[in-house]
Design a protein that fits this description.
MetI-like fold; mainly alpha; single chain; 277 residues
Length: 277
């Protein structure tokens, strides 16, 4: 079969290259601040100096050797882990329930579940502060975990719902027909096929909680200083290059998460193909 070139005129080829150049310029504009942070994190000077004249791991030793920064990192990991467990459990159950076709008010429920992605975080933080103040958990780790779980639930619901779109519900009916309980059918039949979506949602929920600062500013007490809050305090009180070392660690974490998500996406496509066949 004869192959025709996608662009037959000079104007079409010019438009094609103009589109590529425009997209490249936008990408450079978005990535440039990140590219500046990376060398500055290895700067040996006690102040921001670009270009860097001397490289050192001085500020990484400060990040992982200072008890203040270590405490902030530990608080972030604990908070994000607890919030992820809650968000993943509730979000997965909600997505499974929303997968039923005859569920009344399905669109309304879905809109309520994803509303934390739409509502400004500061509004949610202020509302949670006044509500949790009456319960006595405003300046408590529990309050931060609950709000972070709320912020993470939409990501779990969306990713698991997308994975369930290609799931054959006849497999669950067959398992129930063979005597399996609903929990056993979910654990032995559905979960092995949709786990990439569950894990993807869990990663999004963890990243959302780990990187969140507004809720912590409203609900966090002196003992709940997370890594983003410590970076925020450092920007306001003292401009230490340790902040750039922490930012570099967060960049590496984000890149690793994106790579894992891409692996999970490919795994989900493979599992969906197997289930369809």
């Amino acid at each position: 079969m004869m192959q025709f070139p996608p662009y037959t005129t000079a104007l079409q080829r010019a438009g094609h290259w103009a589109l590529w150049l425009g997209c490249g310029a936008i990408l450079v504009f978005l990535i440039a601040p990140v590219l500046v942070v990376i060398p500055l994190a290895f700067n040996n000077e006690p102040y921001f100096n670009f270009p860097v004249h001397a490289y050192s791991l001085r500020w990484f030793r400060e990040l992982f050797g200072n008890p203040v920064w270590l405490s902030a990192i530990a608080n972030s990991v604990i908070t994000a882990t607890l919030a992820t467990v809650i968000a993943t459990t509730l979000g997965t159950l909600a997505a499974v329930g929303l997968n039923h076709r005859n569920l009344p008010g399905k669109r309304l429920i879905m809109a309520l579940l994803v509303s934390p992605m739409i509502v400004p975080v500061v509004v949610l933080a202020v509302g949670a502060y006044f509500f949790f103040s009456r319960l006595g958990i405003a300046n408590n780790l529990l309050g931060i975990v609950l709000v972070h779980a709320v912020l993470g639930v939409p990501f779990v619901v969306i990713t698991v719902s997308a994975t369930l779109a290609g799931f054959d519900m006849g497999l669950l009916r067959a398992a129930r027909g063979l005597g399996a309980s609903p929990l056993t059918a979910f654990r032995r039949v559905m979960l092995p096929l949709v786990w990439p979506g569950v894990l993807s949602g869990a990663l999004f929920a963890f990243a959302t909680s780990f990187d969140e600062v507004v809720v912590v500013l409203f609900l966090g007490g002196p003992g709940q200083t997370t890594l983003p809050r410590q970076m925020w305090s450092g920007l306001r009180e003292q401009l230490s290059p340790t902040i750039l070392a922490a930012a570099f660690v967060l960049i590496i974490f984000a890149i690793a998460m994106l790579l894992v998500l891409e692996m999970l996406r490919r795994r989900s496509v493979a599992l969906r193909g197997l289930s369809e066949h």
